[in-house]
Amino acid sequence: MGVNGNAAFVFNRVLQRNTHQPKGLRAESEALTTTIVTHLNFGRLREAVSILFASPLPFPFSLYARLFQMCSTNAAIVEARKVESHLIATFSPTPPIFLLNRAIETYGKCGHLNDAKELFEEMPQRNGGSWNAMITAYAQGGCEKKALWLFSSMNRLGICANEITFASVLGSCAAVFELFLSKQIHGLIVKYGFGWNVILGSSLVDVYGKCGFMSDARRMFDEIENPNAITWNVIVRRYLEMGNEMDAVVMFFKMIRANFRPLNFTFSNALVACSRISALLEGIQIHGVAIRIGYEEDEVVSSSLIDMYAKSGDLESARGIFELPSSKNLISWTSVVSGYAMNGRLREARELFNEMSERNVITWNAMLAGYTRFRQWEEALELIFLMRKETQDVDHVTLGLILNVCAGLLDVELGKQVHGFIYRHGLYSNLFVGNALLHMYGKCGNLRSTKLWFYQISHWRDKISWNALLTSHARHGLSEEAMTMFGEMQWETTPSEITLCTLLSACANIFALEQGKQIHGFMIRNGYEINVAGRGALVDMYSKCRCLEYAVKVFKEAPSQDLILWNSMILGCCHNRRGRDALRLFELMEEEGVGPDHITFQGVLLACVYEGLAEIGTEYFNSMSNKFCIIPRLEHYESMIKLYSRHGLMDELEDFIKRMPFEPTVTMWTRVLSACTEHGHSRLGKWAAEKLNELNPSTQYHFQIMDTSRGCK
C-alpha cells in the first residue's frame, strides 16, 4: 500500500521511532491534537493529516478514528495511507486492531481493494472485525466472489460474523445469484440469533427474489415482524423484475394500508408494473396516493407517472403532469415523446422531440421506434440521417431499429452499410443486433446472406435467430426448405410458439397436410399452450389443405374465440368454396359481440363471389363504412369488381367503377375488360381498353365482343 504502490512499507521505514516519549511531550501532543481537530472542524483534511504525519508523537485513538472516517467520506486515499502508516509506526509492534479495521474499511470505500488486502494480510493479529471489514470492502467494491470466498474461509476458522458482514455477503450472493450459499447463510443468521434484524430480513427477501424464488422471498417477507419502507420496496421490486406485475401492485397497496410511507422508488416500481399490464385504474389510484403524501412533484415519481399514463394510452393525463413546473427533465421528455409516438400520434411526438434542448440515445430511439411501428419508413430514414449528423451515440436498440427500417424499405444495400458499421464497432456479437440483421436480409430476399450470417452467429444464436431464418424462407416460397431447417433446429434448441406458427404457415403454402399434422402433434405432445395465434395458424393450415373438419374442431376447442380466430375460420370456409358457411359464421360472430375488421370483410366478400350473392355482397360492402366505420381497402374493391364481373352484372359494375374514390388499377381494368368481352358490354369495355392503354402504353388493348356462335351448330 502506498502513495507509490506500497505506502505502508515506505512510511513505516520513515516513521520507525521509539514510541515511548518523555512525559514533557504530552502537552505538545495535546496542542497538536487541538490544532488537528480544528482543521478537521473546518474541513481541512489535508492540513490535518500533514500535521499528524510530521509528528512522531502518538495521538488519541479517537483522533485516528475520526481521520479515517473523513478520509472515507472524501475518498482521500493518500491521506488515508498516511494516517495508517503513522498509526502502525507509532504503536508498533501492536497497533490497535480496531483502528486497523477502520483503515481497511476506508481503503474499501475509497475503492482501493489492493491496499485493503495488503493491510489485512500483514496484520499481526486479526479479530472478527478485521474479517468483516475485508469482506465488506470486497462486497462494496464489486468483487462478490472474493467476498464469498473470504466469508467461507472465515466460517471454516470458526470466526463469527456480525450483522454487517451477513448483509454484505447476502448482497454478494444476490449479485452472483448464489442461492445455495444464501440458504446456508440464512441458517447461520437464525443460529446466531439475528433473525429479528430487519436489514438482514430485507437482504434475504432480496437475494431470494433475485434468484427467482419469489415464494421463498414472500415467505421471508411475511416472517419479518416489523418491515420498514426498504423491505416493502424490495418485495415490490422483486415481484416486478420476476414478471409478477399484479403481485407488485397488490403489495404496494398492502403497504399503503399498513400505514407505511413508500419511497419514491417504490412508487416508481408500482407504476412501472401498472404500465406493463395496462392497469390504468390502479395507476390512477397510485397517482392519488402520490398527491396525498406530496410526491407528485418528485422527479422519479412524476417521470414514472408520465410513463405509465403514456403507455396506457392516456396521453392527456401524461401531458398534464409533464406540464408541471418540476416535471420537465430528460426522462419525462423522453417518456412523453415515446407515448405519443407509440400511440400513433407521430406529428405531435415529432413536435415535442424538436422542442427538446437535450436528447440522449433513448430519446432518439423512442422517436425512431414510433416511425418503425407505424411503417413510416421515409420519415424514419430522415430521422436516422439527422441523428447521425447530430450525435455519434448509438446503441444496440438504435441499430436494431435502423435495420428494421432497411427491411421495411427493402433496401439491402443500406442494410449492408449498417452491417459494416456494426462490424467496425464490434457490435456484431450482440444477439439483438444479430437477429435484426437476419430479419433484414431475410425480408429483403437476400437468403444467401441470411444463411451466411446465421452460420456466423452459430455460437450465440437463439430461438429468435432460428425463427428469422425459417420465416425468411417460408415468406419467399421456400416452405420445403423451411421444414428441413425445422428438423435441424430441434438438435440445437426447442422451437417457440412463434416458430411453430411460421411452420404451420409454410405447410399451408405448400398444402403439406401430413407435416402440418405432425407439427400439431408436436405441440400437443410437448405441452405447448396453443394460444390464439397458434389456433389461427392451425385453422389456416387445415383449411388450405382441404381438411375443413379439423379446422372446425380446432376452432370449437378454443376456450374463447377472438377476432383473429373468427377471421381464420371465415377465410378457411372460403378456401374450401363454402361461402354460405362463411356468411353464417359472420352472423354468429356478430351475435357473439365480436366486431369485424377489414380482414373479416375480405372473407365475407370472397364468400359472396363464390356463391354469386351480388346483392348481399353489395349490402356487406356498404355496411363496412355505414355500420362498422371501416374504410374499404383496395382488396375490397377488387372483390366487388370480381363479384359483378363473374356474374355478368355489367350495369352494377359500371356504376361501381364510377363511384370508386380512386382510379382503378391495371388489374382491375383488365378484369373489367375481360368481363365486358365475355358479357358483351361495349361502352364499359371500350372505356376499360382506353384506360389500360393510358396506364400501360407498351401493350395495346382492344375491346372485342366474344363470338359464342362458333361453338354452336
- Estimated helix fraction: over 70%
Overall mean confidence score, pLDDT: 87
Terminus-to-terminus distance? 116 Å
Report on the biggest sheet: none
Proportion of residues in β-strands: under 5%
**Cα radius of gyration in angstroms:** 37 Å
How many β-strand runs?
0
Low-confidence segments, ≥5 residues, pLDDT <50? Answer: 1-20, 707-713
What structural class is derived from the secondary structure elements? mainly alpha
Describe the structure.
The chain is elongated. Residues 1-20 and 707-713 have low confidence and may be disordered. It has 41 helices and no strands. The protein is mostly helical and 713 residues long. The longest helix has 16 residues, at 26-41. Helix 30 (497-509) packs parallel to helix 32. The N and C termini lie far apart (116 Å).
What are the SSEs and their pairings?
Blueprint: H1 7-14, H2 26-41, H3 45-54, H4 61-74, H5 77-90, H6 97-109, H7 113-122, H8 128-140, H9 144-156, H10 163-176, H11 179-191, H12 198-210, H13 214-223, H14 229-241, H15 245-257, H16 264-276, H17 280-292, H18 299-311, H19 315-322, H20 330-342, H21 346-355, H22 361-373, H23 377-390, H24 396-409, H25 412-424, H26 431-443, H27 447-456, H28 463-475, H29 479-489, H30 497-509, H31 513-525, H32 532-544, H33 548-557, H34 563-575, H35 579-591, H36 598-611, H37 614-626, H38 634-646, H39 650-659, H40 666-679, H41 682-695
